[in-house]
Each structure stands twice: as C-alpha cells, then as structure tokens.
Amino acid sequence: MKPFALIYAILFIAHLIDAFPNGNLDFSKRDNNTIVPYYYNQTIDHYDKKSGTFKQKYFVNSAFYKPGGPIFITTAGETAISVNQVKLSGISYMASLFNGLVISVEHRFYGESYPPVPDLHTKNLKTHTVEQALADFATFISNPPDVPVKIPKDSKWIFVGGSYAGSIATWMRKKYPKLVFAAWASSAPLLAKLDFFEYDLEVGHALPCHDDVAGAIKYVDSILLSGNKTAIKALKVQYGLGVLEQDRDFATAISFPVAIMVQSYFPPLSPNDIDTIPTFCGAFAKSPNKSPATLNAIYVQTFKFFLNSSKLTTDEAITRFFATSAISLAVPNDEVTYYYQSCTQFGWSTTAPRPPHQSLRPQIVNVAGFQALCNFLFPGIPSLQVKKTNHELGGNKGTFSRTVFTTGGHDPWTPLTISGSDKHTISKNSVFVIINGSHTNDLRYPSSVDSASLTAARKFVKDNLSEWLKKY
Q1: Strand, helix or coil for residue 269
Q2: Which CATH number fits domain 10-191+388-471: 3.30.70.120, 3.40.50.1820, 1.10.150.170, 3.60.15.10?
Q3: CA angle 189, 413, 19 (to 5 degrees)
Q4: CA-CA distance, 207 to 212, in Å (whole number)?
Q5: Which tens digits make up the pLDDT trace of 198-224?
Q6: Beta strands of 315-402 (E only): which ranges?
Q7: Which of 126, 291, 368, 397 is most buried, by CB atoms within 10 Å?
Q8: Tell me: the pLDDT tens digits for 38-50?
Q9: For residue 194, what is the DSSP state?
Q10: In a 3-state reduction of DSSP, which class is residue 185?
Q11: pTM of model > 0.90
Q12: Strand 193-195 relative to strand 424-427, pairing
C-alpha cells in the first residue's frame, strides 16, 4: 500500500547523485572555501503576516562572485539542501562562468526548514503548498540577507533547479518576473497528473530488455491477482520480501530497481564501473528460455542484487524502506511532506500502464493504491484537483520567457515537462533535449565522461544566459 514511496526515493537519490561531482575533474580550479549553513527568518503563512516566522536554511558560495555578477539561486525541492549543491554542481560551474554568487535555499517542510508544527498530521500541513513555497523564495529575493555577502539591489537573479526544483524555477520566473531575471529548469515536471502511467512507457523506451521485464511482471501479476494467499506469500519470499504484508508494498518494491536505473542512468565513470542498463539486460540476454517463470527467476536475481547493494538485507530495513505501516508522522519526515504535496496538488503517481500498453510494474500499482495511501496518511484532506493546479500554475502549456529548459531523451518524466507538450509559446527561451540523457544530467558538475550532447546542453544554457544578461 505504499505506491508512492518509489517515486520519492527515486527523486531523493537523483538529487544525491546530482549533488556530487564525478569523472576526472581538476579540483585545483575549484574553490576551497568553507561553506556553512545560515538561517533566514521566513514567514510561516504569507496570507497571515501575524503568523510568525520559522528558520529557513540556506547555503552561499561566494568563491566566484564579483560585483555586478548574477545571483544563481536554487533549491533542492523535496529534500534537504547540501553544500555540494552550491560548491560541486552544474550550478556552481555555471556561476563560475559568470562571476556569479550561488545560493541554495531549502524548501519549506523539507530538511531542517520545518515551520513549528508538533507532527505531520493533516491539520499541521495547511501552509505546505507550492504557493507558500514560491512566496518564500520571492521574499528571500526581495529581502536578501546580508550574511555572508551583501547583495546589491539591482542584481539579476537566475533561478535554477532540477526535477520538482526545476518546476519551482519555472514558476518563479513566470509568477515573479520582476524578481527573477531568468530561469534554468532541468527535467522539470510542469503538468500535474494523477495517473502518470506514461512514466513506465518512457522507461521501456530506454530499456532494451523491456519485453523480458514485462514478461516477468506478467508472471507476478498472474500470482498477485489469483487470490491464492499461499502462492502470493511464496512469491514474496522468493523476492526476499516475505516480511511485507501488503501486496501493494511488495509490488512497489519490485518496481523500484528498473525505474531508478533508467531515471538515474549515467555512463560509467571508469572502466571498472558497471554500466547498469547493459549489465541488467545482459542477464536476460543470456537465457534462451523466455517462459514467464524463467523471466521472473532472472528478475528475482537482479532484484536481490539491488537489495544487497542497497543494504536492504534485514526485515527491519525492508520494512522501513517499503512498508506503508512504517511511515512516521513525526517531524521531520520529507517522505511524508512530499506525499502531502502529491496528494493535494500534483498527483504524479507512477502507475502500471494498462493493456494494450506494456507494463513494467504489477497492475495493482494503480490510482486506487495512491488514493488509499493519501487517505491513510492524511484523513480528511480534499480530493486531489490537478485541473486546479494546472490552471493556477499553467501546466506545460502557455507562454514562457527567459527560461531555458533541458531534459533527457530517456528521462521518464518527459511527458510532464515542456517537451511533453507542443501547446506552448516559446518566448525568448530555449529547449534542449540531451540525446540518451536521463533525469537532471546537466546539473552534475562537468566530467570527462560526459557525452557530446550533455556538453552541448551546458553550452546551450550558458549561451542563452549570456545573451539575456547582455541584452537585458
């Protein structure tokens, strides 16, 4: 019954990957200054100025900054900010090219930036909305702190983000054009959607062995939908997940490795590193037997490799990571607060595609399961209204100005990004699709193993920003 844990974990791990440098880098050209956290007195409720304030965490890297340079502001979105985001990322690299200041501001209700609430029950999450978050960033830009650098009033602010944070960047430029000079949005889902079955379709396009995986999942479906409790229990034990009582928790768990492998794919950093997708598919290619039971047995082995490499080897660890019953409403819990945003504003529930589409996850990973999770965690919340969200935020249609969009050709989130729609007006902005790229690849620090297309994407961003900074 924990269908959304998969997507939260994918996003969280993607942010961790993007935050760290990779490849053969020349660290002598990097700054070696110490980055320390600061805390901004942020308004709790922007519609009630008497609501008080909370401490909103931020990092600043001034190593590249020269007076007159732009301010690159970013956020980690649905997870905690990190030093690496301002020091060892594609954002800090871009700032170094423009003599820019880099600031990362934590999103409310994530990391350390929780308003003073006793727990995460529904009644305490009323100010956890994207509108409040956008107002947070607007307040920060309008009244920037003087520590550790005094920012000139006429500075040009460039909002940068990847994934949900890329959505934030887009919406900040759109809603606050006088505050945000330009935006760089990487792999940004802009369309709110409840039944996001297209995610699996995109994963299948990037996976050479998608037929084999789909065959294994069909075998799993035949058992999960049979109603035979003994057979279902045996299947869970076969996968090393016998501790999971809820069938949906099990179904979500076995969907995890393929999704994260494609979304977080990056070429090997050295000859000794594993090239994940070819290695994974190679296990199926070695077997001439394509019976459902055989395909399932192969998939079991790849899944157990994932469990072992992720140190999910005990019942306690598996329960904590996959079981709905293990979700805590104690503060802090970024998983719960992301669920809340998904349940109330965005949807983004990665579900099993229905026939005739091919599915890479069991059929019980569906909208009903997502809605059950929302009702379980947040009793009494109003039903999700994605039409309202898209009306207020614009979805992936409309007019966009001075915003450069990047996305990966194999990014499963593409259908919800600007590249997933042709019903928009591109005004003074650009879109770049990275060939064979995955999720937020361009927000990594440049590496010697970067593809030509990824390198071109960063140049594309730089050229657009350079043109706008000179012209406006």
Answers
A1: coil
A2: 3.40.50.1820
A3: 80
A4: 10
A5: 999 999 999 999 999 999 999 999 999
A6: 347-349, 398-401
A7: 397
A8: 999 999 999 998 9
A9: E
A10: strand
A11: yes
A12: unpaired
